[in-house]
């Protein structure tokens, strides 16, 4: 189950949606969050997601390119 969650979190669209939701909840509760910190956090988490995607890539499975 944890691997499925990590797989979904490697998608940058999912990360942006999760961070946006958390930010919306926090601002609704009256917590002031500087825009710069949100921007840096989104970029950092997207970078982690891209890194996870690259590390989990199995490569090309076709044999037509090897001929």
Structural notes for this entry:
By secondary structure, this protein is an all-alpha fold. It has helices spanning 2-9, 12-28, 35-55. The longest helix is centred in the last third of the chain and has 21 residues, at 35-55. The termini are far apart.
Features:
mainly alpha; 67 residues; 69% helix; 3 helices
Give the overall pLDDT as a whole number. 76
N- and C-termini, Cα separation: 39 Å
Helix proportion of residues, in percent? 55-70%
Query: Counting H and I runs of at least 4 residues, what is the number of helices?
Result: 3
Unreliably modeled segments: none
Portion in beta strands: under 5%
Q: Helix- and strand-based class? A: mainly alpha
Order of helices and strands: HHH
Number of separate strands: 0
Q: What is the general shape?
A: elongated
The main sheet comes to: none
Rg calculated over all Cα atoms: 17 Å
Topology diagram in text:
Elements: H1 2-9, H2 12-28, H3 35-55
Helix pairs in contact: 2-3
Describe, in short, the structure shown.
The protein is mainly α. It contains three helices and no strands.
């Amino acid at each position: 189950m944890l691997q499925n969650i990590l797989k979904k979190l490697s998608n940058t669209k999912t990360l942006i949606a999760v961070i946006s939701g958390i930010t919306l909840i926090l601002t609704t509760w009256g917590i002031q969050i500087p825009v710069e910190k949100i921007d840096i956090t989104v970029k950092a988490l997207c970078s982690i997601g891209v890194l996870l995607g690259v590390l989990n890539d199995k490569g090309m499975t076709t044999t037509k390119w090897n001929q």
